[in-house]
Amino acid sequence: MEVEAEAEGLSGRMKVVKAGLLTTLQDLGRDGFRSSGISSGGAMDRYALRIANLLVGNEEGEAGLEITLVGPELEIDTDLLIAACGAYMEPTVDGEELPMWRPVFVPRGAVLRFGRAVSGCRVYLAAAGGFGVPRELGSRSTDVRAALGGLAGRRLAAGDALSCGAGQGSAAPSRWAAAWLAALSRLGEAAATAPQGAGRRLPWAAAPWFAPPAAYGGGDGEDGIVLRAMPGSEYGQFSVAAREALFRERYIIAPASDRMGCRLIGTPLTRLSRAELLSHGVTPGAVQVPPGGGPIILAADCQTTGGYPKIAHVATVDMPLLAQAKPGDAIRFQPVTLAEAQRLDRQREQDIRMLAAAIRSRQP
Amino acid sequence: MTVQLTPLGDRAVVVQLEQAAGADGWRQMADFAWALRQQAEGWIVDVVPAYETVTVLYDPSVLWQEIGKGSETQDLVPYELAERKLRGFIARGILDSDREIQSRQIDIPTYYGGRYGPDLLESAARSDLTADQFIEEHAKADYTVAMIGFMPGFPYLSGLPQQLEQPRKSVPRAVVPAGSVGIAGKQTGIYPLATPGGWQLIGYTPIVLFDKERSEPVLLRAGDRIRFIPM
User: Fold this and answer.
1) Which residues of chain B lie closer than 8 angstroms to A282, CB-CB?
2) Contacts of A35 in chain B (CB under 8 A)
């Protein structure tokens, strides 16, 4: 009971001192509105967000911060259990390195800083209890173009304050999170009051275990990030040279890439047919080729409909790898069948369910 | 009826139905999308009707569960089960339902030309019309919302008189103001939000097409009938 009472009280504000390049609240997106032209949106790297949430005892679809390339500086005015998963952006708490992929207790007044992306492109910050912004059309995901979700439908700016912690998100505070928060905060206090010379005093206390980021294993080949992709519906309309180049050449992520799509620089892909397609529904992962021949991989905020021919489609299981590819990174496509992609997707979901169970079974 | 299903990645399928000659494809697509939603099946995540296709997004984990339960489905992958179910719906005649699209008539008061329609004069010249004639022709026609796409609430309207067809701008505008009425090819449409865009802009309407605070945030639906009223 004591634990629960503590959990109830532990919510507060996260003050944005510096916003970083592009920091937005994202969950797993909004479904059911595509026929009204409203994109799904949501986290680009859904794997990292889901794991971050599980590590702080949240439902895996709770909203967290998506931090892109250059990170923010955040001041937290309450004791909080957090987890950071995804890109390595030299995260620190009061100047001391923050361990990733595990639950971490940070005390009231702590300043959390993310630097530049050293590896990867996006890191996700989850807070036990979530973030207190209203759901719009079923989701807290920020859709900047439609000014929907998140904090007033926009990216975070210096001076913003987000309420976070118990009772702020969708679900009641998790008992598991409260237990870890209490245990780690005692650990933190013990460290803070330890005599000088008894070792470095850390401003945080982390669980002694972590969730291995399995989704990215095997993604890096010799010639860049390998994305498994199925032939798209217009694959057969491309020249033999284009079809071969697609699965052989390296492509570089262009600077103009964003949450709507990753533009690729490399061998142009020539389509033999000139027939215009009528607009039809499209989804993230589709590799579209506009008349110029430069492919674009559609991403989380992609439009609901499009009319460019699709030469390929990235397997869902490898979309986290795409989300972590930053401008200048090399990628390569590797062919996969639809059946294989669906089995890989199922395996990933099973792995996440097992990881979730393993996390829940860890008691302090 | 010939039905063609094409995978769109590993979590969606594009359904294309062979059209009767001269039929409005989008009307049948809007009907089919509506009928699919009525099925309210857990594996259907979203349904996107377009001119001649309906894209169905599915949840493979729901389908995997069903695959695991049945002995005759055990060799399938989710796409194959989704395909089987969709063909089943069509065979059972969900397309033959006598549902008439709730065809609402919506008037769009429009300021044509001037700063509201910077491309009106050029467009009229391309169509061998005076600006006033162009406005009259555009406002006289009856339009139907063929589909919503591109951005929240953007209606693609069919019914543009052939004489008024326009090429897209060779260089898209960096910002098209919300409410702009434009033409591209055989289509006319209205921009619900400010955005970059390449359509020829002939007018402006104060009608708000997308407002997240409304219970129905998007004003128009596929099948709605539209008239432009010059102001």
Assistant:
1) 8, 55
2) 33, 46-49, 148, 222
Minimal Cα–Cα distance from A149 to chain B, Å? 10
| pLDDT tens figures, A202-223 | 888 999 998 888 778 655 666 7
Cβ atoms within 10 Å, residue A292: 8
pLDDT score of B170: 78
Q: For residue B150, give both structure tokens.
A: 């591109």
Statement to judge: residues A303 and A168 lie in one domain: no
Whether B7 and A282 lie within 8 Å, measured CB to CB: no
Confidence of residue A1 (pLDDT cuts 50, 70, 90): very low
Which domain-ending residue is among A188, A211, A234?
A: A211
Last residue of a domain, one of A211, A232, A258: A211
pLDDT for A46 equals 98
- For the question of an ipTM over 0.85, the answer is yes
The reported pLDDT for the residue numbered B29 is 84
Dist CA A14 CA A16 (whole Å): 6
Residue ranges of domains in chain B, CATH in brackets: 3-96 (3.30.1360.40), 105-230 (2.40.100.10)
β-strand pairing of B105-112 with B225-230? parallel
Same domain? For A205 and A347 the reply is: no
CB contact under 8 A, B149 and A304: yes
Calpha distance A234→A239 (Å, rounded):
11
| DSSP classification of residue B21 | T
Spatial CA neighbour of A333 closest among A235, A255, A257: A235
Range of A137's domain?
A: 2-211
- Length of chain B, please? 231
**Residue A201 forms part of a structural domain:** yes
Residue B5 sits at the chain A interface (C-beta within 8 Å)? no
Q: Into how many domains does chain A fold?
A: 2
Query: B195-230 pLDDT, tens per residue?
Result: 888 899 999 999 999 999 898 899 998 888 999 999
Instruction: Give tens-digit pLDDT for B6-35.
Output: 999 999 999 998 766 556 777 788 888 888
Closest chain A residue to B178, measured at CA: A146
Which residue is associated with the tokens 């406005």? B135
